[in-house]
Amino acid sequence: MNEVPSLEALLVRHREVLVRYLGRKGSGLLKFEGAEDLAQAVHMKAINAKDRFEYRGEEAFIGWICTLGRQHIADRNAYWKAQKRNAGPMLRITYGNPSTLGGGAGVSPAAEQRGPTTFAGVREQVELAARAIATLPPRDAQIVDLIRGGADVEAVAETLGVSYAAAQRARLRAIERFRKAFELLTRRSPPA
């Protein structure tokens, strides 16, 4: 008597087939998400559709999982088309002690690197950073914007019309307020 394999066992057994299929059919999508990430999402869809699954053999299962994969690729392509794909510069927040202000503390653009899951993450983080900047007092928002644009302490002092020491203190205060606002918004935002 043949025992019917569980859905989970079938997913594990045919994962490589699904990953190769998604790599071929979702090639334009792979610049935003990796084939492994797509396969994981298809597995979640399969598990959610478990009550509608009926085992009819290995070939039928592969056809079914590839159909779910094709639907997922269409959904993700629609998602990425809806996005503007212009996330803007990602901000990197660094914080050091006042003696290392010249090299260690500030807000700077992060690397331009994109990976399978980083593009969506970068977009979300840019939105959170913009919201965090919007919560700052106007002067602090101006300082964070200056720092993001590459201004050093001297440029901040000149723009604000204050001494170098006052600009250092204002810069530290603005960075700290931005960091706290960003952390608070990150904790409040629901996981993707």
Keywords:
single chain; mainly alpha; Butyryl-CoA Dehydrogenase, subunit A, domain 3; 2 domains; rod-shaped
What integer is the average pLDDT? 79
Give the oligomeric state.
Answer: single chain
> Helix/strand-derived class?
mainly alpha
Largest sheet: 2 strands, antiparallel
Q: What form results from the Cα inertia axes?
A: rod-shaped
Describe what you observe in this structure.
The protein is mainly α and 192 residues long. The chain folds into 2 domains: 76 residues, no CATH class; 98 residues, Butyryl-CoA Dehydrogenase, subunit A, domain 3 (Up-down Bundle), CATH 1.20.140.160. 64% of the residues lie in helices and 4% in strands. The chain is built from 9 helices and 2 strands, in the order H-H-H-H-E-H-E-H-H-H-H. Strands 1-2 form a two-stranded antiparallel sheet. 20% of the residues are buried.
Topology readout:
Elements lengths: L6 H7 L1 H11 L9 H14 L9 H25 L8 E4 L6 H4 L1 E4 L8 H18 L2 H11 L4 H8 L3 H25 L4
Antiparallel strand pairs: 1-2
Helix pairs in contact: 2-3, 2-4, 3-4, 6-9, 7-9, 8-9
Summarize the structure.
The two termini are 44 Å apart. This protein is mostly helical.
